[in-house]
Specification:
Spore Coat Polysaccharide Biosynthesis Protein SpsA, Chain A; eight-stranded mixed sheet; 5 helices; 13 strands; 27% strand
Length: 200
């Protein structure tokens, strides 16, 4: 298994509740047993002083994140050590999350994602097959459900799925691009309702 942590700072990487083999971070977090791969922090302003959203800046951020996530998956594929576990350091998953996600990685499933709040609304970073965004209040039961798109922020995926996903372009919301690429590769994308994370 290859474990990958994506962080915005060395402090964030060191405080993540996760033991990575690969760390992507602007600064070297000096985590024993982990290889460090430097990245660049996105530092543009996303909102005007009046609170108005700047769509062009958000588009540039999406492309920036897509580059980092592509690098993360490419490094994990290169490690060639079975399933790939990815965690963003600003996401706090519940105990037992890796085991639950990995157990749902059955035949035909390329990726199993956790429930990740968007941080801005009561929605999560996952959309149903057909395109409707999933909300925190939705009754998702307890078994993994097939979805149309989901985030890499806390997930387990096969090497085959990682190869199908990369490279990510960032021309669309990354979650949608992931879903489309997995569907094109005839791989299922699942959401695990019992792995509910805190974000930010």
């Amino acid at each position: 298994m290859t474990t990958v942590l994506i962080a915005k700072s060395a402090d964030e990487a060191r405080t993540a509740k996760f033991a990575p083999k690969i760390v992507l971070c602007p600064e070297n977090p000096n985590i024993d047993g982990a290889s460090w791969n430097p990245t660049t922090l996105f530092d543009e302003v996303l909102f005007k002083p009046c609170g108005e959203w700047i769509p062009e800046a958000h588009g540039r951020k999406t492309k920036h994140v897509a580059i980092i996530q592509t690098l993360a998956l490419a490094l994990a594929v290169e490690a060639n050590d079975g399933p790939i576990v990815v965690l963003s350091a600003d996401v706090t998953p519940p105990d037992g999350w890796q085991e639950r996600l990995t157990a749902a990685l059955t035949d035909g499933v390329g990726m199993v994602a956790a429930v990740i709040p968007t941080g801005e609304t009561k929605s999560i970073k996952a959309w149903r097959v057909g395109g409707k965004q999933i909300l925190m209040r939705d009754d998702l039961d307890i078994c993994p459900i097939e979805v149309g798109s989901a985030a890499l922020d806390c997930c387990v995926l096969t090497v085959e799925a990682a190869k199908a996903i990369i490279p990510l372009s960032g021309h669309d919301l990354t979650e949608h691009e992931i879903g489309a690429k997995l569907a094109a590769a005839n791989l299922k994308l699942m959401l695990h309702p019992l792995v509910r994370c805190l974000h930010g």
